[in-house]
Amino acid sequence: MMTTLSKLLAVSIVLTLAACGGSGSGSANNSSADAGVDETPASATPGKLFTDITAATGINYLQGYQQAGNLTAMEKFCGGVASGDFDNDGLTDLFIVRGDIGAHLLYKNLGNNQFDEVAASVGISIENHLGCGPAFADIDGDNDLDLFIGGIKGNRNFLLENKQDENGRIYFEDISDLSGLADTAADNTISASFGDYDKDGLVDLFITHWGTPASTEKQHLWRNTGNNVFVDVTQDSGLAGHIIQTPTGNAMLGPDHDYTFAGTFADINNDSYPDLLLVADFGTSQVFINDRNGGFDNATSSVIKDENGMGSAVGDIDNDGDLDWFVSAIFSYDSPGNRLYLNQSLNQSEQGDNSNIFTDASNALGLEQGDWGWASCFADFNSDGFLDIFHVNGWDESLFDFDFANDKSRLFLSDRSGLAGNDHQLKFVESAFASGITDRQQGRGIVCFDSDRDGDIDIFVVNNDDNSAILYRNNSDSSRNTLTLTLEGLSPNTQAAGARITLNAGDLELTREISLGSNFISQNPVEQYFGLAENTQIDQIRVDWPNGRISLENNIQANQHYRISHPDN
């Protein structure tokens, strides 16, 4: 595939992966489980935090390519998985892009960690397609999830609309050509993220194009204009002139290329408008602040120094009320590895200063050593009230003394020993093997979600080798409490993309934002999971909806699935 020299350079670079009774008028009803609340089953028996249960799930497929002997870099890091409840039965389903070795797959969640492959039965028959980075989103506001699939090496993109026939049978209709997304200027679409950047209620699309020459028209931000039509606004939004940045000297394809891997819409300066965090290879990650007028301003500072950014995770990891950013990357002698950027915007909001929103806490917290990181996520795996970090790894070559071909995933658990519940100090312990995550595969995409609806976060991994997928069941300690929250947004933004949630329980104050983003070629569902530690009751949940309305719910029992509907629904 490459010369010996380019292989060596590749190892010091590339692939990135891209990483939830008050005064509210929502549909939740605190006195009746039937009116928006599902009871959470008892947790599993104690032991290791995770158990590999893949063999018993019904998920079994091969990942690969027909021309397997001469793979390009993109084929070696592409594929991916989207997660979402496509049939509205309350269970999170999985759509998997598997290379051109066979048709792409849709696994319907049957409950109890059982899955059934149903792609063909719902009209998804996509074969001989080099795909990447799928994502679910309700693009037309009809309360069901549509599906985007990127293409690489000149293969088309797909946009599939979720529909029902006269008998109520679900099927997907190919609207790719109608949407304007089928054939973009770039040959490679890596990851996809949805979000309502202009706050018109329709979710827009941001896609990344690693490996695209600088001379190609920049088509990354697509505005949803309604009626399933998207229009490229990359130039009009001010993003086009910033996509191509000067990369580090070891950039695989040279200086004049697009190295973007994953974008995430997130309000990082707390002004209620979605900003854009862009993970990119070879030192080209960037921060863009929404100008509230349909455009973005580049606010990238010298703090953003991930050299080989791949995966992305966004959330309030220190429980201080704003959104932090984790970028998984390559760790080697000449690459600094993972980066955790802590958000300082609440300290700057009065001055309106967006120039130094983040500070780098990576090395101080021991998070940099992740080897060759790909998709990443924030989730409270042990339900102690603080977010943890998980990311997968792998590349099929070694660099110096680093054996990336035999790499393990990383699980950085928040360590609260000796700290009060409201203490924002951070400590982490790398705990993958100790927690039962023992695979050493070529991990690429991940979904961090409650597969079996028992209230804790399980992990689904898609690999780029013979062991194509792994489902780790979470066996959390039942002495800790949780809450799962689903927001029912106001159409057309039915998933409430951009809504901010603040939960108070005892001395915990937890913040979440609804994101339809990418972990890197993969996507978490929009359900939000809250670990509550020993708290058995939530004092209050506040929802700041994207259109400015506010919902308040008080005195909610823990250990249930709870729903809050927009007050105008």
Can you describe what's shown?
- This protein is mainly beta and 569 residues long.
- Helices cover 4% and strands 36% of the residues.
- The chain contains four helices and 40 strands.
- A four-stranded mixed beta sheet has the order 1-40-34-37, with no helix packed on it. The chain has a four-stranded antiparallel beta sheet with strand order 2-33-32-31, with no helix packed on it.
- It starts with a helix and ends with a strand.
- The model is unreliable at 1-45 (pLDDT under 50).
What's a concise summary of this model?
With 569 residues, the chain is mainly beta. It has four helices and 40 strands.
Principal-axis shape equals globular
Helix content: under 10%
The CA-CA distance between the termini, in Å, is 55 Å
Find the structural class using helix and strand composition: mainly beta
Give the strand line-up of the largest sheet.
1-40-34-37
Jot down its keywords.
mainly beta; four-stranded mixed sheet; 569 residues; 40 strands
